[in-house]
Amino acid sequence: MIQLSSTEENYLKNIYRLLAEGGEKVGTNEIAALTGTKAASVSDMLKKLAEKQLLSYRKYHGVSLTEEGTKTALLILRRQRLWEVFLVEKLKFAWDEVAAIAEELEHVKAPVLVRRLDEYLGFPKFDPHGDPIPDEFGEWESSPRVLLQEVAPGKAGKVVAVTNSSAAFLSYLDKVGIYIGAKVEVLDKIEFDGSVELRIDGGKTVYLSREVAANLQVRLHPS
Amino acid sequence: MIQLSSTEENYLKNIYRLLAEGGEKVGTNEIAALTGTKAASVSDMLKKLAEKQLLSYRKYHGVSLTEEGTKTALLILRRQRLWEVFLVEKLKFAWDEVAAIAEELEHVKAPVLVRRLDEYLGFPKFDPHGDPIPDEFGEWESSPRVLLQEVAPGKAGKVVAVTNSSAAFLSYLDKVGIYIGAKVEVLDKIEFDGSVELRIDGGKTVYLSREVAANLQVRLHPS
DNA sequence: AATAAAATTTAGATTAGTCTAAAAATAAAT
DNA sequence: ATTTATTTTTAGACTAATCTAAATTTTATT
What we know:
homodimer; Arc Repressor Mutant, subunit A; SH3 type barrels; two-stranded antiparallel ribbon
C-alpha cells in the first residue's frame, strides 16, 4: 500500500461512501459536496488518485474505485469505526457526538495501532451507528435487517432499504422526511392499528401506518 | 486560544522542550534539528508564530516562548503524554515504542476528547517515561528527581526518565533489564570510575558505567 | 436536431510549508 | 581590531491543495 495524505484518504473514503449507496459512478459535484470542496478541486484530485491506480477515471464521466482503491477505503472506514467504538464504549461519548473526532483519529496511520485497538475493543463487528467494521482484509459481517414494523419501541436504527418502490410510496416517504440512510428511533407502537411513532434524524416525530412500516427495512444500532 | 496547524504545534512543542533543558533562548539550527527541517524554514515559521504572539523573536538572537506560547506548548505535551499512557496502559505497547504514534495522536484537537481521555485513564500524573503530565491549566506535580549518578549507596527508588533516548541507549537498558518504573537500589558506588552497582526489581544486580548512570533519572523512595 | 442547461475540466492564482543558494549578522580567533 | 568561521536571514523556487472564472463537454428540452 502506498502512503497517502489525509486529504487523499478523505477523498477515497467519501467516494466509497457515495458508490456504496449510489451506483456505478460518482461525479465531481457530489464528491465536492461531501468533502467540502469545489468541483474544480475534485477534478485535480481525481487525476492524482487515478495516477496512483486507486480509481478509474474517464473525463466527464465520473469515477469508480479500483480493487486497490476499494481496499484502501475500507481500511480507512475500519479505522474510523474502531475509533467510534472506542469513543462510545470507553470514553462514554454519545453515538451521535463521535463523528468529528473519529474523523481526525482515523488518519493516524500506524497499522500496529489499529490492530491493538481492535483487540482492546474485543474485535467489534459494528460501530455505534450500526455500520459494519471491515477486518484487515476488508471483509465484514452483514448485520441483520429488520422491518420497521418489527422494531421494538426504544430501539434506534438506520433506514437501509424500501421494499416497495412505487412512485406514490417514495414521494410519501419524501414528504414525511424519510430517506435511505435516515436515522430513525421508534418511540412507540400503537397496538390496535400497528402504526409506529417515529423520530427522524433526532428531530421531528411522525406516525407511520402499519402498511408503511411494513415496507421499510432498518438496521438496528447495537444495544 | 487560536487554532494552530499540526506543524505549528510541533514547532511550539519542540521549542518548549529545548528551552526546558537548555536555557533562555534557542536558535534556528537547534530547532531545525529537532523538527527535521532546515534553519531557513525555521526562520519563516518563527516570524509567523511571533506574529501570533506565541513567541518573542529578535532577529539573529533566538527565541523564547511567551506566556501564551508556553501554555499552548504545555497543552500539546499534555495530549502527547496522555496518549502515551493510553498506549502503554491500555493497548499494551512497550514504553519505548509509543513516541511515534503519540506524535500523531497529539494533534487531534477536540478539547473534550482530552478531558475524557484524562478521566478514563484515572488522571495520571506521569507518563510512561516518567515525565509529568500538565493539567488543563498547564500545572503539574513536580516530583523531585535525582540522577542515578547522585544517589547514595543504600538508597532505593524508581526509574522515572531517561535523558538520552537514542536507540542504542534504550536497547542497552532493555538488555540489562532497566525500564521506566523499575525499582532500583544502589548497592555501591565505585569511587575511581564513578560506576554504580545496582539491584533491579529486588533481583539481579548489574554494574552501570558513570555515563549510563548520568542518563537515568530516579525518584527516590521516601525514607 | 438545435439549443439551453447542467456538469466538468482547464487555466491561472493563492496559501502553507518547505527547500537551496546567496547575503547579512554575530561570534570566535588570531 | 581585523579577519575568519558560524549562524541566521533573505530571495527565489517548488509542491500540495485549494479557489474563481472561463472554456468545454455532456445532458435535457424544446
